[in-house]
Amino acid sequence: MAKITYIQPDGSRQTVEAQPGVTVMEAAKLNSIAGIEAECGGACACATCHVYVDAAWREKVGKPAEMEEDMLDFAFDVREESRLSCQIRVTEELDGLVVTVPEKPF
Ligand code: FES
């Protein structure tokens, strides 16, 4: 299992145990993490699973693929550390990963 911590815009944190193989979005949904809607169910077609990857983890998580980058254009307040959480697959290597849920524009 890998521990993943989700930080909300107000600074509150929730750490969950994720099974390797699920995505960071699926782990959030399974644990009712607020702010990750994942309207398209993980098809990289909605950008409502947008998160910011903690600086210490950015290299391990890697960069978005082209299709993900295109979809990120539809997300609000995109930054260099932005990723779509449905496109990050949990591995033992990502044990301890920290991501922040963006503030919602409305
Ligand atoms: S769940 Fe829709 S893009 Fe990630």
Salient structural properties:
5 strands, about 20% strand, globular, binds FE2/S2 (inorganic) cluster, 5-stranded mixed sheet, alpha+beta, about 110 residues
Written account of the structure:
The chain is an alpha+beta fold and 106 residues long. Helices cover 17% and strands 22% of the residues. It is built from three helices and five strands; from the N terminus they run ββαβααββ. The protein has helices at residues 24-30, 58-61, 66-72; strands spanning 2-7, 13-18, 50-53, 82-84, 97-100. It has a five-stranded mixed beta sheet. β1 (2-7) and β2 (13-18) form a beta hairpin. The structure holds FE2/S2 (inorganic) cluster. FE2/S2 (inorganic) cluster (FES) binds at residues 25, 38-40, 42-49, 71, 84, 86.
